[in-house]
Write a structure and sequence with these properties.
about 180 residues; alpha+beta; 3 helices
Length: about 180
Amino acid sequence: MNMFPNLNSAEVSNTNKLGAGVHLVTIKSYEDKKSMKGLPYKEFLCQSSDGVAYIRFNGITKDTSAAASKVRTEMFKKFLITAGATNFSSEAMACNSILNKQVKLILTERQYWTTDDTGVPVIRTYIDYKMSGTPDSNLTFDSSLNKPLSGDDLEQYMAAKNAYNNAINSHSPTVAKEDDLPF
């Protein structure tokens, strides 16, 4: 029995995540989502031969300041324009018009610390969208755009890591000395 009859013709896509730098990508899809805190955002799946990037644009709520609303709207519209959108009468129309279009992206790295599923403090890296340009634009990446942990965040991480290690070590069973053994 052949469990995978179309194995020969199946295509495998590259699911590596794109890192910091300039990338020429094709916009494959988008989706309206909400963060864990309930903030709406649009997420675009962008793909190149090197991998994929998920580009996120935070939405606007009644609690968003006027300044933040302006910046978010302008950043989102610039992305749409550089990807070829021309009609902005509805978000869906503008977003659908850029599917399968190419755009250049500048992606940066932002470090943060958190705890993993077991409670161990860890440093993680998040890839941020910084800006976009048309496929023929001459965008350049500057590593100073990356955001490593700040000094305060690094101190907080080290304190959490030390507290975790001390808690683990204080619960370690003690090993009896050879002459203390009962036999």
